[in-house]
């Protein structure tokens, strides 16, 4: 079943045409139990078909252990975005970025493709001072209208500082992790697993 209708495809074609450079969607799945792996791959295939500036690569936990380690993939499905040079900027989606999270996924593609919005100089300077590794997990549900803003902000931090990795975590897909971090409302932000 297609998730993108013709009207949305037309809108996305216009949006992606403004992107200066190419983006690769790297999808990681596993052969074992994976609640939304098949649907996530289908969705990413739909997105990649919208623009010739977007390509898709598929990896599995079992066949691509080196890539799993390189990009610190711990949850399945996961999607990372790579720029035209194949560089990873710490932007990760754990679970399918559908529902309201579509509103954080499209801006992440645009940012990775060089269509980024400026950040006030004072804020950029503060972000640049982060000098130790920081992992930001933003727990979301696909029905939460407030979650995409939190995800976008975390991803922006990652794009601006290589010490920051930011992950969307779909709370219902990853219930065990959500329970570990006491997620009772979303968005819930967990920094360095604390």
Task: Explain this structure.
The protein has 194 residues and is an alpha/beta fold. The protein has seven helices and seven strands. A seven-stranded mixed β-sheet has the order 2-1-3-4-6-5-7. Strand 3 and strand 4 form a beta hairpin. It is globular. The model has no long low-confidence stretch (mean pLDDT 94).
Mean of residue pLDDT?
94
Can you list the strand order of the major beta sheet?
A: 2-1-3-4-6-5-7
How large is the count of helical segments?
7
Share of helix, binned: 25-40%
Low-confidence stretches: none
Distance between the termini: 38 Å
- The shape is globular
Number of strands: 7
Classification by helices and strands: alpha/beta
Major β-sheet, in short?
7 strands, mixed
Task: Return the string of H and E elements.
Answer: HEHEHEEHHEHEHE
Task: Tell me the radius of gyration.
Answer: 16 Å
Strand content: 15-25%
Multimeric organization: single chain
Summary keywords:
alpha/beta, 37% helix, 7-stranded mixed β-sheet, globular, 194 residues
Brief summary of the model shown:
Helix 4 (102-112) runs parallel beside helix 6. With 194 residues, this protein is of the alpha/beta class.
Q: How are the secondary structure elements laid out?
A:
Layout: H1 6-17, E1 23-29, H2 37-50, E2 54-60, H3 65-70, E3 78-82, E4 88-94, H4 102-112, H5 121-128, E5 134-140, H6 147-160, E6 164-170, H7 175-180, E7 188-191
Parallel strand pairs: 1-2, 4-6, 5-6
Antiparallel strand pairs: 1-3, 3-4, 5-7
């Amino acid at each position: 079943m297609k998730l993108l209708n013709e009207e949305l495809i037309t809108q996305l074609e216009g949006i992606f045409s403004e992107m200066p450079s190419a983006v690769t969607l790297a999808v990681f799945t596993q052969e074992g139990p994976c609640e939304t792996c098949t649907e996530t791959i289908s969705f990413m295939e739909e997105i990649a078909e919208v623009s010739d500036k977007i390509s898709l690569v598929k990896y599995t936990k079992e066949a691509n252990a080196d890539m799993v380690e390189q990009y610190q993939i711990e949850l399945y499905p996961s999607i990372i975005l790579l720029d035209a040079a194949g560089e990873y900027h710490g932007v990760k989606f754990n679970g399918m970025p559908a529902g309201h999270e579509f509103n954080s996924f499209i801006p992440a593609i645009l940012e990775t493709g060089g269509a980024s919005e400026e950040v006030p100089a004072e804020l950029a300077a503060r972000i640049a001072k982060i000098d130790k590794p920081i992992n930001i997990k933003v727990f979301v549900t696909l029905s939460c209208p407030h979650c995409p803003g939190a995800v976008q902000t975390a991803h922006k931090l990652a794009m601006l500082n290589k010490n920051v990795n930011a992950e969307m975590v779909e709370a219902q897909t990853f219930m065990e992790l959500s329970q570990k971090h006491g997620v009772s409302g979303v968005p819930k932000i967990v920094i360095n697993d604390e």
